[in-house]
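Section: Multi-chain targets

For targets with more than one molecule, the full set of components is provided together so that the structure can be written out for the assembly as a whole rather than chain by chain. Components appear in the order listed by the source. The example entry contains two components.
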Amino acid sequence: MTLFESTLATALRDEAQEIAMSTDLNDGLDVLEDRLDDVDRSRRRGYVVGAMVAVAVAAALVAAAVLLRPVSSPPPATHPSPTAEGRGWSSTPSSASTSAFRRPLSLRLPPLLTASSFTDNERSAYVVLAQGQGTCSATTADPCSNGEDAFLAILDPKSIYDPAKAPASSPMPGYAGYVSFIDSLRGPDWTQANRATTTTADGHKVTLWTVGGDGIRNGAAGCNTDIDPIEKCWGTYDATAQPTVSRFAVVDVGATPVVMFMDLNADNPSVPEMVRQFDHMITTVRFTTP
Amino acid sequence: MRGTDDVGWSADDLPTSPRAAVTALFHAHYRRLVGLAGLMVDDRETAEEVVQDAFEQLYRRWGSLRDTGAAVGYLERSVVNGSRSRVRRLFTERSFVYPEAGTTASAESAGVDSRQRDDLVAAVRELPRRQREVIVLRYFLDLSEDQIAQWLGVSPGSVKQHAHRATASLQRRMEAWA
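Its structure, encoded as tokens over all components, is:
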């Protein structure tokens, strides 16, 4: 190790030591205990539900066996063949439901978009994506890497930052206005990777884009309040020139749209497949009554 | 810095109850992991949250770990991944809320005064995100280029390139001290 490397390593370790010593272990332990209690409670609920499901399935199988006995024997079971649209998704889909988000919804998370954590508040729901969740090991050959650097956000913004009007924020426009706004975000450092496409989510019209580049678009995806400073708002983070790819979906749900966007590291080799699965996921969204 | 040698826990030492084992690991590694996260994110509260998330995930997955002795490696990787996700999540101001330096004895013993050390750390924080990650993984966690490539999901060539650019930038900063 050279003198420079040694100096750098020492400086980093000193800095980490200072940070470490400024944290309170006992406070941290209290927080951890609360979190582990929550995990335990959640597991117990899961066991109860699982047991109830198992009993119901067993009862249904018995009933089916009784009903089918006088009839000819049933055809052999077959497995659906994979299709381009639904390859593998129905086997182990994860689902997520908001709890505090003001436009309650549920959705199914496809394999590459499974969540390692899900949190929400009145104006935003945030999913940390963890590809390979449940199959991770503690080895360095952990296959979870593709989803580690990704998140999915579901927003009901009150305002946005339009670069043309910055530094002031603007009220969140309606669906058509927001679609035009996203369409207008073009430039040498911001590319629309493809033309906008449309689909529906629970009967609501949706417009989708893939966008990316080195540019910063702070606040483009909106802010939780109408007084948030730009750095507290959602958008593409690129203050450090790390190329990202974002998939935007704007859902027409009323006066102002719901914005769903997935942010990925552009280096991630699974980007095309994750975008495809994101688009499918949009069609699984179900809005529920507040 | 790595492994369990400095904290006294091995797979055989860990309590058999998952909760007790995770708590024991927390006692042994919490501060160090907060330090690691603190090098990758810009405020201590976020660093603490990232580390809490890592321990919670470890507890959730304890039953599927093939080797509980590798739990520390799992935690380190979770912290790195969690920190990277947080950095990308929201726009945070690049202001640091850590307390003033308490001791800088080891840096000074390497011939670097506290002002220069702070300047070097600040320079690391100002690096482009990927370069900063490579530098922290290389010089704090002592990972090899191949390991860093695996952790970050990029090619070893890309790691080499980021490391080269980062060290060139940091060396220029150090040369300015003269």
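The longest helix of chain A spans residues 25-68.
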